[in-house]
Amino acid sequence: MVDADARAFDTLYQAHYGDLVALLHALTGDLGDAQDLAQDVFCRAWQRWRVIAGYDDPVAWLRRVAVNLATSRFRRRRTADRHLARQQVEVVPALQPDHVALVAALRTLPVNQRTAVVLHYLVDLPVADVAQELGVPVGTVKAWLSRGRAALASRLDEAGRTGAAGQADAGPTGRTSGSVDGGRAASR
Amino acid sequence: MSHLDTPKSEFEPRDAFAGLRAAVRASVTPPPATTLRARAERQLRRRRLATVALVAAAVVAVLVGTSTILRPTATPPPPAQTPSPSITPSTSTPPTVPPRPPWPEPRPNLPVPERPTAINDPIAAVDWANATLTVPPREDCPSGTLRFVDGQTEGFPQMILALDDGVPGQRLAYGDLTGDGSAEAVIEVSCLAHEQDAHAQSALLVFTRDSGGALRSIGGWVGPVEFINHTNIWVHDGRILTEQVPSLPGSDYVYAPGTAAAYEWDGDSFVPVPSGLTAVVPLGDETLGPPIDLGPDDGYVARALGCPGGVIRFRQHEDGYRVDRDGVVYRLGFTVAEPYLADLDGDGQTYVLIPVQCREADVAAQEAVSTETGLRGQGLLVLQRTPTGFAALDLVTVPGRLVSGWRFDKSGVLTAYTSPYGGGVVEPTTWVWNGQYFQP
C-alpha cells in the first residue's frame, strides 16, 4: 500500500509540479522562490498523503496551500522589500521578455487582485471558484479582476512603449526588471 | 505578437497567462520524487521530536505548577504507516469482482413541483449590497453604522457581505429567529484587515429592520470567527442552521458532511444548540458511519454507480471514507468547500449531496479517478435522512466526466461542475429537482 501511495503521489507530483511553479512564480515574481515553495507544498502533501489521497481533487488542496504560502511569504517580505526597493527582478533565460514583463506587472497589483487574476487567468478557475477559494463574494472577485486586468494592461502598455521588459515599471516598490540573473534560478 | 506589442485595449490576459504557464513548465524540472518524499519524511521526524520535547516540557511545567499553555501543534498527525487490516482486501485471495450492472435507462421527466415562495417581510426586499448596516465591533473589522457599496465597505479594514451571488450554497437566509413575528436576515460576513490580505475570516451576523427601515445587527457575532465558508445558511424552526466548512487547508476547524451548526436566540445572543443533523461518516469513537441504503441491485442508484446495491456503512480508511465489499470499493469523495446539505423541497428539511465512486478493489483511488482504470461509476449521491440513517434517492452523473463541484440554488436547480478523468476543462451541467430525482 505504501508503494501504491508513493506511486500515486509521484504521478501527481510529476504532473503538477510545473503548473504549481507557474502559479507561484506569477504570485511571487521569483522563480527560485516559486520552486522552493512548490517543493514545500508537495512535502506537506506527502506528509498528509493518506488524507489528501482521499480528495477527489487533490490539486485544489495543493493550489490552496500554494496561495497561502505565497501570501504568507509576501507578508513576511513586505518590510524587507522596502529596504530592497531598488533590487531588480530576476529574469530567467527560458522566459521571454513579455513573460518577464507580465510577472513584473503582476507584482504591482495588490495581493488580492493579483491572486484573483492568477487563479482566474493562469489556473483557469471560474470566477465562482476563485471566490470560493478566497472566501469572498463573486462580486468582489469580479471587481478585483476588472481592476487587476486594467492595471496589467496599463503596465504592459507602458512597458511596450518604453521598449521592452527591460524597462518595465514594476510599480510602487520601485522594482524594475531587466537584470539578467538567471544563474540563481537555474541553479535551484 | 507578444502582449508587449499589443495595444492596451487588446490585451488578452488568458493568452498571456497561458504563454507564461507553458514557458515556466518548460523551464523547470522537478527534483526526483524520492528525494522530495525523503525530505518530507525528515521534516516529519524532526517535528515529531519537537512535539515530544514540547509534551515533556508541558509535563514538567504542570508538575512544577507553572501556567504554561501549549497550543496544539498545527501539524496533523503523520499518516498511519500500517493500513487497517480489518478493511484492506487480501492480496492473496482476490475476491471475485461482480460484473458491472447495465447502465440504467433514462428516466422520464416529471412535473417539477412549485417551491415555496420567498418570505413575505419587508426585510426580504432589502438591497443588501448597497445597504447601510449597523454592525458590532470585531478585531480587524470596521464597526458601527457602515455604508456598503456592491456588498463591501470602502477602505480597510473592509467588511464584505457574502451575498448569494454565485458562490455555491445559500449565504443569505430569512426567518423569525426572535419570535417577534418579524423576519430577521442572516448573512455571512467577511473582513479583510489590510489591502494585501487575500483570505478572509468569516462569521455570521443577524440583522433586524426597525419600523423606520434601519437595519442593525442583533446578538453580536454568531458562531466562530474562522477561515470557514458558511456554504449554506438557512432558518428552520426558529433556529439558524449553517454548514461551516474550513476554507483553508490546515485549519483546526473540522467538518463532517451531513452535519450543521445550529444557533438559537436566548433573548440576548445566538447560542449554539444541537442541530440534530447527523453525519454520513463515523464521528468520534465510532468505527462505522450510519447505514446508507443504496436500494436494490437493479435500482437506478446501484446501476448508475456500477456496483451492487444494499446497505453500506462507511468507515475511515487511509484513502478516505470507504466500504470494501465483494471485490469493489465504495468511497466518498470530499471537496474543499461545497455545500453538502441542500433543501431540495424548499421546506427546511435537508438532503445530503456527496460525491461517491465505486471502483474495483485492486485499483488505487487516485488512479481510478485519473485514468478511469477500474472505475465502475461515480457521481453525486443524493441522500435522504431516515430514522436509522440515510436512503440514496439518486446519483447525478455525467458519463466520462468526474463531478468536482456543485451548487444548488433557491430555484431548485442543481449545477454540477465536471471535468474529464485525469483533468481538463471544467464544465457546468444543470438539473432540476422533481421531488424524486434530478432531471435534465
Task: Give a structural overview.
The complex is a heterodimer of chains A (188) and B (440). Chain A contains nine helices and two strands, in the order ααααβααααβα. With 188 residues, chain A is mostly helical. Chain A has one domain. A two-stranded parallel sheet of chain A has the order 1-2. In chain A, helix 1 crosses helix 5, helix 5 packs across helix 8 and helix 7 crosses helix 8. The longest helix of chain A is centred in the first third of the chain and has 27 residues. Chain A is globular and about 55 Å long. The C terminus of chain A is likely disordered. Chain B folds into three domains: 29 residues; 152 residues, no CATH class; 148 residues, no CATH class. Chain B has four helices and 24 strands. The radius of gyration of chain B is 25 Å and the shape is globular. Chain B starts with 12 loop residues before the first helix and ends with a strand. Chains A and B meet through helix 1, helix 2, helix 3, helix 4 and helix 5 of A and helix 1, helix 2, strand 3, helix 4 and strand 21 of B.
Notable features of this structure?
heterodimer; A: 188 residues; mainly alpha; two-stranded parallel sheet; 2 strands; disordered C terminus; B: 440 residues; alpha+beta; 3 domains; 7-stranded mixed beta sheet; 4 helices; 24 strands
Please tell me the total number of domains of chain B. Answer: 3
Describe the biggest sheet of chain A?
A: 2 strands, parallel
Element string of chain A (H = helix, E = strand): HHHHEHHHHEH
Strand content of chain B: 25-35%
Count, helices of chain A: 9
Alpha-beta classification of chain B: alpha+beta
List the uncertain runs of chain A: 75-93, 163-188
Number of strands of chain B: 24
The largest sheet of chain B is: 9 strands, mixed
What general outline of chain B do the C-alpha atoms trace? globular
* pLDDT averaged residue by residue of chain A: 71
**Beta fraction of chain A:** under 5%
Q: What's the assembly state of these chains? A: heterodimer
The order of strands across the largest sheet of chain A is 1-2
Number of strands of chain A: 2
